[in-house]
């Protein structure tokens, strides 16, 4: 074994300091606002019954969304981890796309596809000969849950399928030999070994739903469906109650922190072989079941996204038009006048945030792996304990304190918020690659007289290349689709594609939103393709 030293820690130190500062400084300003007037706002928030109604609903929608997503994923993962059939790889690849689909596109796709006057209702009315909406889904609790399941079920499906695919089946065979039934074997043998992957999926989805913003704000459509994130946004931009928003942010951070501490024992890594077991070829009834399952998955995932592309070129009445695209190209008045600026802003901010996240994230991950440190991954995960609206609020307090009035400062603040959000994900993506580098490889290099720095550059960081590529794609996609913190922080100074799409949805300009949504979807697909390339290289 190679002795631990301070080289990798020193390399990671700048990234750690930047992450901690970007997280702690805005948090400090939030705390200062919450404790104004002897903490009056904080006392009110902790003693207000409405706060606990917010907590109850936030927990309800998060738990229910995560539970449904996970339960739906388990039987599908059981089939996809056992059989091979035409189209299996395509469905798994499509499920991975959910990591790069911005939530604002889910909102837009749901409005266009599931709306009272949306494509699905229009088709049903024509088929059934009715002159009224058949399905009433939007602006309700079921719309929130359905959208969360749509966005997050593929995550659980992919994670559990991957874990199940490399799970040795020797214990199951032994159980069958002893006369155990399929159900008894699954409950007593398979399920306990899958529990880490199932719990990790549940917790990850729960945290995503706990900090959900645009889905709650738009698809809920009712103040009774408010969560911490939407209420914080409302207090800042509608009630102009910054102290109350800050106090509520701290309350939310406290709850999330408690949840993370409680659930952390269940998030231990499973020590499984990474070699996929041999899959059976689906035949007869199994092949028919595979086709049916694929159709169900595709019919659930594809229509909302395809409806965005359709609506970008067709009017509500079904007539072909390029008006939205002409508005973008000409830069006409109104919201479209900032479309090109929003596209450039989105790309530039995402590019900078992703590049910095990979640069610092790879060094933090390497330091954590070389020193077998649990503290570094924990420090890098601190921003995940807060919602992006809360992070945006902290940065907005920082902006007020600095009393800035320049466009450059606005870009730096928005970019800093994006970096704070995506860096933890970059570290988590690269960390498995850093842990997989054999110590013997580095030791052989040292034996040949190669310095530690040259070994790190030429060998170790080179081996991280596929993971860095995938981390870049993931971070870029997250930043590209980020709307929560940007909407809270930009205050109209910095427009990005998701912000423009949100504003167009709010003003019922669905065709303009669909045109920009198509551009955002294309960018997400390109980034996803890059990430898939990195994933394949990492596996190989």
Task: Briefly say what this structure is.
With 540 residues, the protein is mainly α.
Topology:
Elements: H1 7-34, H2 36-47, H3 49-80, E1 83-84, H4 88-96, H5 103-114, H6 119-128, H7 141-165, H8 170-177, H9 182-210, H10 214-220, H11 228-237, H12 242-263, E2 280-281, H13 285-313, H14 323-330, H15 339-370, H16 375-380, H17 388-402, H18 407-435, H19 439-447, H20 452-463, H21 465-480, H22 484-490, H23 497-506, H24 510-539
Parallel strand pairs: 1-2
Helix pairs in contact: 1-12, 1-15, 1-17, 2-12, 3-7, 3-9, 4-7, 5-10, 5-13, 5-24, 7-9, 7-10, 8-9, 11-12, 11-17, 13-24, 15-18, 15-21, 15-23, 17-18, 17-22, 18-21, 18-22, 19-20, 21-24, 23-24
The percent of residues in helical segments reads over 70%
Q: Examine the secondary-structure arrangement and name the CATH architecture.
A: Orthogonal Bundle
Domain module tally: 1
Alpha-beta content class: mainly alpha
Largest sheet: 2 strands, parallel
Q: Averaging pLDDT over every residue, what do you get? A: 84
- Going by CATH, the homologous superfamily would be MetI-like
Q: Ranges with pLDDT <50 over ≥5 residues?
A: 269-273
Label the overall shape: globular
The end-to-end distance, rounded to whole angstroms, is 25 Å
What is the CATH class? Mainly Alpha
User: Total number of β-strand segments?
Assistant: 2
Strand content: under 5%
Strand order in space, largest sheet? 1-2
Radius of gyration: 24 Å
Count of helix runs: 24
* CATH fold assignment: MetI-like fold
Give me the strand/helix succession.
HHHEHHHHHHHHHEHHHHHHHHHHHH
